[in-house]
Known about the structure:
This protein is of the alpha+beta class.
Amino acid sequence: xxxxxxxxxxxxxxxxxxxxSGSKAVVFDDTGRQVAMAYREYDLQSPQPGWAELDxxxxxxxxxxxxxxxxxxxxxxxVRGLGISSQGEAFTALDANGNVLSNALVSSDVxxxxxxxxxxxxxxxxxxxxxxxxxxxxxxxxFKLLWLRDNQPEVWSKAAKxxxxxxxxxxxxxxxxxxxxPLAGRTMLFDVRKHEWSGAIMEAVGLRTDQLxxxxxxxxxxxxxxxxxxxxxxxxDNCLVVxxxxxxxxxxxxxxxxxxxxxxxxxxxxECITPAFCEPRFTASLQKNNLCTYDHTVPGMxxxxxxSLTGGNILKWFREQFxxxxxxxxxxxxxxxYDLLLRAAGEDPSDLLVLPYFTPTGTPYFDTEATGAILGLxxxxxxxxxxxxxxxxxxxxxxxNMDILEYSGLAINELRAIGGGAKSxxxxxLKADVMGKPISILDVTxxxxxxxxxxxxxxxxxxxxxxxxxxxxNVIGTVxxxxxxxxxxxxxxxxxxxxxxxxxxxxx
Length: 508
């Protein structure tokens, strides 16, 4: 684009990712090159065992601060579009004046466990699945809302709106709040076939549709930021605010997952595989194994989320409990302690088996009471073998999920690695060997923000999001499974599949 004096006008697009421990804003130019970033952390509150909350005002203030900080690193008013990727499930109650009435209850909050069990049976377990594409778990907004209704009636009666973080930030930006279909799906209030709030569920809960944000497909313009707010934040006048949705499909889009057979493999606090498919898929196998079906960020496509809640937490746990040597080396040499631990893990399979339930499980079991185990310890077992076995356990869990997906007709031929763990060749090679699949390495460091920003550019320019995702995402390498080691892991996987059914009755 050419400016009024003949010079080129800089155009940028921003993706905001609202997470559980912090939020980041990342800006890309119109070729997909990252040019600016800002990040703020905030504290997770746990006022009672099993409770996990965020101060919604603190989260929103952090989001506005990082938007302004990232924009300040660029030519003034050059950010023309903003997309928002958000953690799922968490919601905030607002009064008629837009004031926050309660903290947001995040995914790991399990206070609604009784509701997810009893209410689902009363409503109809199959009926609920056929509407929402999800199976019951206390993480979902539906059950947290029921808990709020019955346990904090003063908040419930004053609430004019219940907004998830994507739509709450839009509200704070001064636009008529809308929620992307993928995030709406994570509330378990949304009909994923009709793409509307479910009348049957809303009536059973006692909610009105005007208490929720407008559900729109990812990549829809929900509004334009007013010139005064845009000026305060350093954005272009009438900057577009565009729906993106749940963080996992946004990350998958940022990894270029736009067709069947390809899946994002994210390694962070949670380990997650997100494939794409062309039509909603409801099967007994997916339902039994708690593998959902909901909207992808690509128009007309769907996704599921296979995840281990332990994930990268397991390496963090080892670092904190047994990694004092590496932590001290990090201080003295500036070499990352995690890199040192991964180096100690070596390249060869361990002789141990780990059941990686150091947190409640994710898919396929949705077991909030499960505990972990390390089997096969001997006096000859080394520290490095234990490190490797912990990582193998999480990888086996993800292979278990992937096998269920393939049995359900959702074959995965290529995995695309994102997240902090993707930076480690050793860790990625281990995963490729365990999964028996090639893993592509990308030049994307902030896939969720990239996906959200790409959706905002697509809305602004009219360029199809699939084309943008392809041009903005580059595969820079592939890690192939090593045939001999992959065969050994396949044999060991048969043993792994017996661990949970065998040990569950013995767990303490």
